[in-house]
Amino acid sequence: MPTFVKRSELPVPSSELFAWHERPGAFERLNPPFDPVEIEERTGGLEVGARAVIRAKVGPITQRWVAEHTAYEQGRLFRDEMRSGPFHKWVHTHRFVPVSEQQSVLEDEIDYELPLGALGATLGGGYASGKLEAAFRYRHAITRADLARHARFAGAPRRTFAITGASGLLASSLTPFLTTGGHTVRPVKRVGDRLDAAAIDGADVVIHLAGAGVADERWTKERKQLLIDSRVAYTRQLIDAMRAAKRPPKVLVSASAVGVYGDRGDEVLTEASAPGPRGDEGAAFLSGLCLDWEAGARAAEALGTRVALVRIGVVMAANGGALAKLLTPFKAGVGGPVGPGTQWMPWISSEDLIGVLHHASMTDGFAGVVNAVAPNPVTSREFATVLGGVLSRPAIAPLPALALKAMFGEMAEATILAGQRVRPQVLEEAGFEFLHPKLEDALRFTLGR
Q1: DSSP state of 316
Q2: Tell me, what CATH number does 88's domain have?
Q3: Which of 281, 289, 389, 426 is most deeply buried (CB count within 10 A of its CB)?
Q4: Domains in the chain: how many in total?
Q5: Same domain, 253 and 119
Q6: Residue 130, Cβ neighbours under 10 Å: how many?
Q7: Are residues 100 and 241 both part of a single domain?
Q8: Residue 416's CATH number
Q9: Are 446 and 34 in contact, with CB atoms under 8 Å apart?
């Protein structure tokens, strides 16, 4: 019977390492974006008898997996076993071994058997071991990074966060990051055509991520109005709720986008750079939209709230956004640069974006505009070359600008073909530590390569 073991020494006490795993959101936080599972049902925590039902993709097939916790020793270990699912046997023991007062070892040991006996081991043994290695390399890296980020604010009290856009891609990772750090998260839901103001009252921090996808559809007149309403009008509702609260939030971290700078060619852009021009079409429309969005959020300053405006670049996440849309053609070997290939692409890994939002929330005095981009922007051509290399596929099939304009109209001009060479000057001066300062590292992490 094969046994897989992954060990990592971490610079935290074993008690804190165990506590991180026991807090709400740990399972979701460890769910790799390149091979995610869907939670169908869950009862209990880590104690004996707790159960989880998930749907996992095994090769091309999605299968139901029922796991039950069969051992629990506070601060030392817990164990889950598969009751039904894709394996003939699966026993996963999680161990937390103290090394010193500030050092511990995280050990995952899995005893498993593939179905079909010797034939299954012959046909699928290499595939299974490769999948396990990728998944647990990711899990241990996430655990290390999250514990380090929370440790920087260990002396600060735990806070209550209200998050708009809580069902979106970013919030689905941000929420478990915060809860495993000991914070409380309230999703700000809609009640009819209004937001739930009760989630705002008494929250320490609001992280405002709501907004319809800018690049999801062709920009018709109706789509543009939706983009405006979901950002500018919704932000106005948010500020009204904060103003009416008995105890208004002390911090507002509001999303924006690097599209505020317009199409700027090779000009190096920092937070001090002027925004792009306003207008009704293309990049000018997007620039104006971002400016109005930010102006709405700044209204919270009159309430005594510290406001941080986070201008986000292209987020590298395997399970959504721009990267997920590009994976199919690149994996098929027909990917390549879009348009001329010379336009700059300011990007950021999803994990570093979570880190930026956390840093902005927890750092007293951190206010104003911050560019949430990696310190090493690339051109469209460079991006295609790196992504092709990570996927071991050619990346030489260009997608001409004329074709993009024909397919997507001015949305393509504003997002895909416009370029901004953005630098994260505020983050660099604040000493923010990027997990993935280079594109290849970010892609390999989120793609499990």
Answers
A1: E
A2: 3.30.530.20
A3: 289
A4: 2
A5: no
A6: 11
A7: no
A8: 3.40.50.720
A9: yes
Contact 28, 53 (CB under 8 A): no
| Residue 189 three-state SS | coil
pLDDT at 43 over 80: yes
Q: Are residues 185 and 50 in the same domain?
A: no
Torsion on CA atoms 27, 33, 34, 39, rounded to nearest 10: 50
Alpha-carbon gap, residue 403 to 380, rounded angstroms? 16
Do 204 and 115 have their domain in common?
no
- Buried-state track 354-373, b at ≥16 Cβ within 10 A, e below 16: bbbbbbbbbbeebbebbbbb
Domain shared by 227 and 340, yes or no: yes
Domain ends where: 118, 134, 151?
A: 151
Rounded-to-integer distance, Cα 173 and Cα 214, Å: 20
Give Cα 14 distance to the centre of its chain.
26
Q: Residues 98, 226: one domain?
A: no
Supply 199's token pair.
Answer: 């989630």
Residues shown for the chain? 449
Q: Which residues pair with 72 in a beta bridge?
A: 78
Q: Are residues 263 and 400 in the same domain?
A: yes
Rounded to whole angstroms, the Cα distance separating 85 from 58 reads: 10
Amino acid type, 122: T
Residue labelled with tokens 């721009």? 322
Based on the domain organization, do 121 and 139 belong to the same domain? yes
pTM tops 0.90, yes or no: yes
Percent of the chain clearing pLDDT 70 (strictly above): 97
Residue 124 has a pLDDT of 62
pLDDT above 80 for 402: no
Domain boundary at 151, 183, 212, which? 151
8 A C-beta contact, residue 211 and residue 296: no
Distances (CA, A) of 432 to 256, 315, 353, 370, 435: 19, 18, 11, 12, 10
CA angle, residues 300, 306, 312, in degrees to nearest 5: 90
Residue 377 in tokens? 């922007």
Residue-number span of the structural domain to which 367 is assigned: 160-447
Task: Give the pLDDT confidence of 141-193 residue by residue, as tens digits.
Answer: 999 999 999 999 999 999 999 999 988 889 999 999 999 999 999 999 988 77
Closest CA to 105 of 134, 135, 138, 77: 77
Q: Is residue 123 very low, low, confident or very high in pLDDT (cuts 50, 70, 90)?
A: low
Supply the DSSP symbol for 122. Answer: H
Strands 89-100 and 103-113, bridge-based pairing: antiparallel
Burial of 197 (0-12, 13-18, 19+ CB in 10 A): middle
Strand partners, 215: none
